[in-house]
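Subject: Protein record for review, amino acid sequence with backbone structure tokens
Why sent: The fold of this protein is of interest and is recorded here as tokens.
Notation: Tokens come from a learned vocabulary of local backbone shapes, not from coordinates.
Attached in line: The record itself begins immediately under this heading.
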Amino acid sequence: MPEREEKPRDMKEMTLLEHLIELRDRLKVCLITVGVLTMIMLVFPAQLNLGWEALYAYKPMVSLVLDILREAVLPKGMRLIGLTITAPLELYFTASLIFALAFSSPVIGYEIFKYVDPALYPHERRMIYPFMAAFLGLFTGGLLFGLYIITPATFKAMVIFFTFVGAEPIIHIKDFYNTILIVTLGTGIVFTSPVILVLLVRAGIISTEAVTRNRKWIYGAAYIVAAIITPDGGVFTNLILLGVFVALIEGAVIVARRYEKKRELEEMSRSAEEAEQPSPKPGVDVCKFCGKPLNGKIFCPWCGRSQR
């Protein structure tokens, strides 16, 4: 195998001040993006026609998004109430900021990635690209699943208990949207667990054997997390979320085993090469971490670590 020196794409050294300036500039882009989108949510009209008739039916963008969420989740027979005079105003501003953060997340993610990308080694970059794609895909799928499956089931279960105790199903508007946010975001995070598992196995931190050996404890903890995410959803909703989690984890174990086998083959090949490689003589330039010959290189061709 030919020796190859892996190094970051951008080898230009920057001072601490230059790093801080770059971080400031990228944070500025993120804050401006969030601020602009927040203002759009607050004041930009949801109607495309801006005639005089639209002035009487003016609705900002945040109202349009809240209407979509309410129609997707609110069951028949349940009504919302403001309860306090400031509750609608608080929801108006809070929802605008949350939606602005959600819609600006691609820009925020891009700025974070561009800040750390020059320092990544080629093998790290090859690992992070598919990881980010899978993470974003599963997270988005989890958000949609939580919004259209888990959250409606949670509210339908709550309506049943209102009937049992003879109460009218009227809930605080802030509780309604807080429940949507917690359940949807929690489901999205649960959906990313396979990506985390595969990454940990690929990095050699855990093994698939440890996961399969402790299945009952992992799934028991997962049910507790599902119960926390859907506090009033009932056993049926918790079991739905648990079933999805089990399917995702079992699929992740299958994928992670492939990486384990690949790593084992690479270790066997490396061991064979090390056995054929003659031991370095005293005084020869060797890596201070793994002890292999450097041949005058700054980055060790065996472990990839810098000698400076």
In short: Residues 173 and 245 are 30 Å apart (CA to CA).
